[in-house]
Write a sequence for this structure.
């Protein structure tokens, strides 16, 4: 993995720094997005934070700042950006809340399956939003990025057994909330169903 | 190891929830995944090669000042004792055979030099006389 130091720029041809930048983006952008998404449960905002974090990495390079571990650096910057967003004027004043925008319907009729799925996802998003951030984070790593327990343990710097425990508890809390709202019950064929 | 029906039900619920979460998160992730953000074009390549191109902004001004001072000094030198027209190929000979212009008139009779020459011209026969009768347009002269 490229380490992002200035010593890697020996190649005089082409654009080695841009190539390194894109390589880092391909490697880590989904993880950065997942971290931001777990914080705010907003896909577009998570992508904005991801792109901003990478642009800041580029600026650091321009300022000749050496970054030993770009992945850790990016995740830290994304986390800070996500927290800063909580204090920003955009967050306070906002545009239209997602609940309102979800009510804007297309003129085209939607298939009933898609409507049901969107409704279920909206409810799931709402319940995920009620969970504690650490629960959302571990669920996002597991199900958005398909990380196994070892990868999550490495990412969160905890033991693998702790990953299993935290994951199990997060799932349990989520299931309880969904069940209490009558939105989830184990189906016969492994499908989530509305009850 | 035998599992109880309750355990079976819990495992199946976990599987269902896992599938639901996977579907949900996959639906939330942008597809296709956006490309890396464009880096500012003005700041082309932040490499070590940029450093030598970073010239001193005051260098041009200092160069201009140095040329100006040299020009002034050279002009002063030329108009003091360094300018010798006779030395120039094809140039006029010095009026009194000296090495250059003698503005004070240092010849023996005191009339030499440039001052003496000017006096000759001013006091000579071709010297212009003062006009007593101003031009009168009414008289026709």
């Amino acid at each position: 993995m490229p380490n992002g130091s200035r010593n890697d720029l020996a190649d005089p041809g082409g654009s080695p720094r841009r190539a390194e930048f894109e390589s880092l983006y391909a490697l880590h952008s989904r993880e950065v997005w997942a971290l931001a998404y777990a914080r705010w449960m907003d896909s577009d905002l998570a992508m904005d934070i991801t792109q901003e974090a990478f642009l800041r990495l580029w600026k650091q390079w321009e300022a000749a700042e050496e970054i030993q571990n770009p992945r850790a650096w990016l995740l830290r910057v994304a986390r800070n950006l996500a927290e800063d967003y909580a204090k920003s004027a955009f967050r306070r004043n906002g545009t239209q809340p997602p609940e309102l925008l979800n009510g804007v319907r297309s003129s085209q009729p939607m298939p009933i399956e898609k409507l049901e799925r969107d409704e279920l996802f909206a409810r799931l998003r709402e319940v995920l939003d009620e969970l504690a951030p650490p629960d959302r984070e571990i669920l996002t790593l597991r199900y958005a990025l398909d990380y196994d327990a070892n990868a999550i343990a490495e990412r969160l710097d905890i033991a693998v057994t702790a990953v299993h425990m935290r994951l199990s508890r997060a799932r349990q809390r989520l299931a309880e909330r969904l069940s209490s709202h009558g939105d989830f019950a184990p189906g016969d064929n492994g499908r989530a169903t509305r009850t | 190891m035998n599992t109880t029906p309750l355990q079976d039900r819990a495992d199946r619920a976990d599987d269902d929830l896992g599938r639901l979460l996977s579907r949900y998160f996959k639906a939330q992730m942008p597809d296709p995944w956006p490309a890396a953000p464009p880096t500012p074009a003005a700041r082309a390549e932040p490499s070590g090669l940029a450093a030598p191109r970073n010239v001193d902004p005051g260098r041009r001004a200092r160069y201009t000042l140095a040329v100006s001072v040299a020009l002034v000094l050279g002009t002063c030198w030329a108009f003091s004792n360094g300018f010798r027209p006779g030395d120039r190929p094809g140039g006029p000979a010095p009026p009194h055979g000296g090495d250059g212009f003698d503005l004070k008139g240092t010849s023996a009779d005191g009339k030499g030099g440039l001052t003496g020459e000017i006096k000759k011209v001013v006091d000579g026969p071709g010297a212009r006389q003062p006009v007593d009768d101003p031009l009168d347009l009414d008289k026709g002269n």
Remarks:
- Confidence is low (pLDDT under 50) at residues 1-14, 94-101, 187-195 of chain A.
- Chain A touches chain B through 46 residues (CB under 8 Å).
